[in-house]
Design goal:
about 450 residues, alpha+beta, Helix Hairpins, SH3 type barrels, 4 domains, 3-stranded antiparallel sheet
């Protein structure tokens, strides 16, 4: 026990001796070199003058930029035509302060150089401001605000590190931070490269697929379903290649992924069952062309027009502007009424009742005339009116007419037709029936009538 304690104390003493084994003379030399650098390069009159010049020019540029920015934005709004030119003018207006600051710094640096003053700090700051202005102008071409800001910050950080000479040490530092997975080594530098390259490739994949989609929209020889199918397959292929290239950039061996293929298949079978089912259903819908963008359909009580066929869902917009995102699987497993699948013509059946005392043949003729006068009712097939039964209170008629534009609604055209029927019936003395009941009283006995307070007789 005593020997073990003695050994532990000896190890601790050796460790402390190694940590404190520093040459005092070497330490003093490093401290003196640092002090000499600060006195010779930082705490000098020239550096103080340059710092004061930087602060003064920054304040002047900030004050002068505010009224100039408002005036420039007004000129761009009134005189510039075109979205891209207006956007470029707005970007220049937002960068007016650094542009003025750069102009003041350039003029001041030229004056100090003519007087043989040190301008090292001014030169570095001028280069950084110039890089920032150029990067912000080019990043303004990116439509998304988040990605534009991310690109600007990343590019300016690299430029700043390169200007001050710290880019090489920063790369070495990031490359030294990492861990090993088998024979491969994953470093922070590789991870950053993979994220950047993957982001750029994914953005390019979406941009190319969107460009292809806009081009295909103007291709008259392609059906809407075929356009969507080509767009979806192209987008999926581009995204797959972008992901594979990004993974390959950070040094991931794809042969190692084969080990996890079985587990991945089980995960897809259970966890992503609905996602895969909707994706496959979308491909089936695009291939058999049973549903296309622009079709008017009804499913599960939802009536509307198909606006988008996606990889996972289909967008259906109703007449009141509500947009439903319906999973593609429902179009395969449920009953769907497609009002424009093989023929856009749709027949409407509208029940109408008249009183028994009215002229039935005249009423039928008036209903047909009302249908013919309705603007959206087509002439072929012709509208008709049939006698379909004798009800308790009315003679039951049924108007049947056809329309060729169900996407414009069916309730509104029915309403127009019924308004015309109402007008014609009143003009020609055709009565609409009211509910009637015949009450028969049994003979042979008195009828007792009871009156209660507050109630009228009858």
């Amino acid at each position: 026990m005593a020997a073990t304690q003695s050994t532990a104390q000896s190890d601790v003493a050796d460790t402390v001796e190694k940590l404190t084994d520093v040459d005092p003379a070497e330490a003093m030399r490093l401290v003196e070199d640092a002090g000499d650098f600060l006195l010779d390069s930082v705490f000098t009159v020239a550096t103080a003058l340059q710092l004061g010049a930087l602060a003064a020019t920054f304040a002047i540029a900030s004050v002068a930029a505010k009224p100039l920015r408002r005036r420039l934005i007004g000129l761009v709004t009134r005189n510039v035509r075109g979205y891209r030119l207006k956007r470029f003018g707005a970007a220049v207006a937002n960068l007016l302060m650094p542009i003025l600051w750069l102009a003041l710094l350039s003029a001041l640096m030229a004056a100090l150089s003519a007087l043989a003053h040190d301008t090292t700090l001014l030169r570095v700051i001028t280069t950084l401001v110039s890089a920032w202005i150029v990067i912000r102008l080019f990043s303004g071409l990116v439509p998304d605000t988040f990605w534009a800001r991310a690109v600007a910050i990343a590019a300016w950080s690299l430029a700043a590190l390169s200007i001050v000479g710290w880019l090489g040490p920063a790369i070495d530092l990031l490359d030294g931070i990492g861990f090993s997975i088998g024979e491969a080594r994953l470093t922070l530098l590789l991870a950053i490269k993979g994220v950047v390259i993957g982001g750029v490739l994914l953005w390019a994949a979406f941009a190319l697929s969107s460009l292809l989609q806009r081009r295909l929209e103007h291709a008259p020889h392609l059906t809407p379903s075929l356009r969507v199918l080509i767009t979806q397959i192209t987008r999926f292929t581009l995204l797959l290649f972008a992901t594979l290239i990004a993974l390959n950039t950070i040094g991931i061996d794809f042969t190692a992924l084969a080990v996890f293929s079985g587990a991945l298949g089980v995960g897809l079978g259970f966890g992503l069952q609905k996602v895969v089912s909707n994706f496959v259903s979308g491909i089936i819908l695009l291939l058999d062309r049973s549903i296309e963008p622009g079709d008017v359909l009804e499913i599960s009580g939802t009536y509307g027009r198909v606006t988008t066929l996606g990889a996972r869902y289909t967008s259906v917009v109703t007449r009141d502007g509500t947009e439903y995102l319906i999973p593609n699987e429902q179009f395969i497993t449920e009953q769907v009424v497609n009002w424009a699948y093989s023929d856009t013509r749709v027949r409407r059946r509208v029940p109408i009742g008249i009183s028994y005392s009215s002229d039935m043949e005249l009423a039928r003729r008036l209903v047909v005339e009302a249908c013919a006068e309705t603007s959206r009712v087509i002439d072929n097939p012709k509208p008709v009116c049939h006698l379909v039964g004798f009800g308790d209170n009315a003679v039951d008629l049924e108007a049947r007419f056809w329309i060729a534009d169900p996407e414009n609604g069916v309730i509104n055209v029915t309403s127009d037709m019924l308004r015309a029927v109402w007008r014609k019936f009143h003009e020609n003395g055709i009565e609409f029936p009211f509910p009637q009941r015949d009450v028969h009283l049994k003979q042979g006995g008195p009828v007792e009538i009871v009156m209660r307070k507050g109630q009228a007789p009858g």
